[in-house]
Amino acid sequence: MEPIRRQQLIEATMAAIDEVGLADTTVAVIARRAGVSTGIISHYFGGKDGLLEATMRRILGDLGESVRQRRVILEQNTARGHLRAIVEGNFDRSQVSQSVMKTWLAFWATSMHKPTLQRLQYVNDRRLHSNLSYQFRRHMDRDSARRAASGLAALIDGLWLRGALAPEGINITRAVALAHEYVDEQLAGTTAAAQ
To answer: What is the pLDDT of residue 83?
Structure first.
């Protein structure tokens, strides 16, 4: 029963954040949405912060899975292919639904004030940068690869954020195309240019 209950509470958290924002998403609101007592949230998560952390871990797990799925279908094990998989995974439907986007935004804002959430954000940020750097490093010197990775990470975050805040929502096709163009520009003139 526990995994089902935990999943139910995570879904209720995202729905509540989507509807009323993080500030007005109380343990009572989440419990009511999930049809459970507030004590269940304390039992499983220790409170609202613990539930937000669990919710973000689930969203990050979905992100990792979307990138893994794209890597599985790569025709060739190229840096370009892996970089594209990372880009596309970050704009996967699991990352751009309204409730997930609002949860991400709430998480980022809250992580500046909560050490446990700040650590989770740091780990996520470092993981992205490390994966991008590793792929660029296959065709560039270390410093160039790090710069290219920093640029692509900023572009992914910036495109995602602009889309999240736009009244019309995110244009996934355009965002992915812009990020792919950046990858192609960075790899131009390297041994990856022919791949």
So the answer is: 98
CATH architecture of residue range(s) 52-187: Orthogonal Bundle (1.10)
- CA dist 4 → 10, 47, 99, 149 (Å): 10, 18, 20, 38
How do the domains of the chain map onto residue ranges? 52-187
What is the predicted pLDDT for the residue at 194? 42
Whether the predicted model's global pTM rises above the 0.85 cut: yes
Question: Which spans in 73-96 are helix H?
Answer: 79-90, 93-96
Angle subtended at Cα 29 by Cα 23 and Cα 35, rounded to the nearest 5 degrees: 155
Which band of pLDDT confidence, cut at 50, 70 and 90, is reported for residue 192? low
In the structure, what pLDDT confidence band is assigned to residue 191 with cuts at 50, 70 and 90?
low
Which residue reads 């004030």 in tokens? 113
pLDDT (tens digit per residue) in 132-168: 999 999 999 999 999 999 999 999 999 999 999 999 9
Instruction: Report which DSSP code applies to 77.
Output: -
Using CB atoms within 10 Å of the CB of residue 101, give its burial: 0 to 12 exposed, 13 to 18 middle, 19+ buried.
Answer: buried
Question: What's the chain's length in residues?
Answer: 195
What does the buried/exposed string (b/e) look like for 7-23 if buried means 16 or more CB atoms within 10 Å of the residue's CB? eebbbbbbbbbbeeebe
